[in-house]
Specification:
By secondary structure, the chain is mainly α. The chain is built from 17 helices and no strands. The chain has two domains: 411 residues, MFS general substrate transporter like domains (Growth Hormone, Chain: A, Up-down Bundle); 56 residues. The longest helix has 35 residues. The chain is globular and about 70 Å long.
């Protein structure tokens, strides 16, 4: 792969700068840049927590609207399908029509879709609203990250900004569980959707005031064939893995979609090497550090759902926690993610680079998942659940902030949107695959445990605990693989694009 110091043509220009007009040393940074961070962080929080906040509300929504257990999966899947399959298009649109404009359109659309979902009179309307949320989220998320990328060019300030942003991205899912529990228990499940109107209103007011247009003067045309092929491929991949949860891996609707998705994504890569204006220029993903960061986001997205999904089940079904108490139980992990993200990007990455940090974070996360396998019906929160949660927060904080920073560092201004979209795509597709794969493995493990045993309540409870243990071990395996992959791919040293010394030498040769 190309070296980042040569390939990326680092462009530290602000949101209004062109792709080949780096800000001269000593020039003023964009005004209101910390307000820009507040705006995009709030929007990112809204998008991330919406992937989990509705999960807590599902039982109440099902009772109110009267849909079956078989159909409830679509409330989650509709959002994931639209969001995951349209992210690259959303990122490129941010480069083409302007990041501010794309960001504000995404906010308005997300708010409208949330209002429709909150007032949904039927299951069909709620599913349509969730799909619409995912569509506008695919505009919003990459625009937000690319605004951050082009606003903060000073390495020290960039480290602070990405530390905060990475903390929110890593902790948003857990915060969604808490907020969903509070709103469902004390108000109504519909407020899990209505609450987005408040987030969107504040972010829109701030975005209108503080964001710059971010339109590149030499923006390329939209790659229509590439857009159609990759959107179809991502849709098939996400749908195939989601379908495996309901119908199993042997169902034609599972392997057929997965095979089709693989073929379409292979065709997309082939086309991007030949298209005049590619949707995803291969130079964006060809850099070793950037490619390693995308893989880190993918693997950690797949692995961390072992915590959010199965530990939520364990706390509520085995320890009999309420939804609110379950959300509160995750708060220590959230705090550790936020602290670790800020410390990592401000103190560690600028000094030693990503190579020792991300693999170590993977090992910590994998160790936390292995630790969780010891949980049983007599375990307590303080002695048995909290310690691995804290270790998990430490690991995820090291992965997310570092990965997001290097995944967007050094890209040209007119590629910032699509580079940012790749971060979200990696995490979203990884999360979708992880959720469906772990859920299938856990379900199969529970069924095997019950073979030859009397179907008593005690046996059923032990089967559930066994299924959680299997899921945790597989999550640990994901992170172990991530540690090896990132250790091999990341370069030694600090990338030039993150160095505070403009005359610094490039990162040392690949190992």
């Amino acid at each position: 792969m190309a070296r980042s110091s040569q390939d990326s043509s680092t462009d530290p220009s602000g949101p209004e700068g062109g792709p080949h007009t780096p800000r001269p040393p000593g020039a003023a940074a964009p005004a209101h840049r910390w307000w820009v961070l507040c705006v995009v962080a709030l929007a990112q929080l809204m998008v991330v927590l919406d992937a989990t906040i509705v999960n807590i509300a599902l039982p109440s929504a099902q009772q109110a609207l009267g849909f079956s257990n078989g159909n409830r999966q679509w409330i989650v899947t509709a959002y994931a399908l639209a969001f995951g399959s349209l992210l690259l298009l959303g990122g490129r649109l941010a480069d083409l029509i302007g990041r501010k404009r794309t960001f504000l359109i995404g906010l308005i659309g997300f708010a409208v879709a949330s209002a429709i979902g909150g007032g949904a009179p039927s299951f069909e309307v709620l599913v349509a609203a969730r799909a619409l949320q995912g569509t506008f989220g695919a505009l919003l998320a990459p625009a937000a990250l690319s605004l951050l990328t082009t606003t903060f060019s000073d390495p020290k300030e960039r480290a602070k900004a990405f530390g905060i942003y990475g903390a929110i991205a890593g902790a948003g899912g857990a915060f969604g569980l808490l907020l969903g529990g509070l709103l469902t228990e004390y108000l109504d499940w519909r407020w899990c959707l209505y609450v987005n109107l408040l987030f969107a209103l504040i972010a829109f007011a701030g975005g209108s005031r503080f964001l710059s247009s971010g339109v590149s003067p030499d923006r390329p045309a939209l790659d229509i064939p590439g857009t159609v092929v990759v959107s179809g491929g991502l849709f098939c991949i996400v749908f195939g893995f989601s379908n495996a949860q309901r119908h199993g891996w042997s169902a034609p609707s599972t392997w057929g979609f997965l095979a089709a998705g693989g073929v379409l994504l292979a065709a997309f890569v082939w086309w991007q090497g030949r298209a005049e204006h590619p949707l995803l220029p291969l130079r964006v993903v060809a850099d070793r550090d950037r490619g390693a960061s995308y893989l880190a986001m993918f693997i950690s997205g797949a692995g961390m759902f072992g915590v959010f999904l199965f530990l939520t089940y364990y706390l509520q079904r085995t320890l009999l926690y309420s939804p609110v108490k379950t959300g509160v139980a995750f708060l220590p992990m959230v705090v550790v993610i936020m602290i670790t993200s800020v410390v990592t990007t401000n103190m560690l990455v600028p000094r030693i680079g990503a190579k020792p940090i991300v693999p170590t974070g993977m090992l910590f996360s994998g160790g936390a998942m292995a630790w969780l396998t010891s949980l049983d019906a007599s375990s307590t929160y303080g002695a048995h659940v909290l310690p691995p949660l804290l270790l998990m927060g430490l690991g995820l904080g090291m992965i997310f902030a570092t990965g997001m920073n290097l995944a967007t560092a050094g890209v040209k201004n007119y590629d910032a949107g699509v580079a940012s979209a790749m971060v979200n795509t990696s995490q979203q597709v990884g999360g979708s695959i992880g959720t469906s794969l772990l859920n299938t493995l856990a379900t199969s493990a529970a069924a095997r445990y019950l073979v030859g045993r009397r179907p008593t309540a005690a046996v059923a409870g032990k089967a559930q605990l066994h299924s959680y243990m299997v899921a945790y071990w597989w999550s640990a395996a994901f992170f172990a693989a991530g540690a090896v992959i990132t250790l091999l791919l990341y370069r030694r040293g600090v990338p030039r694009s993150l160095s505070s010394d403009p005359n610094a030498e490039p990162a040392s040769a690949p190992v």
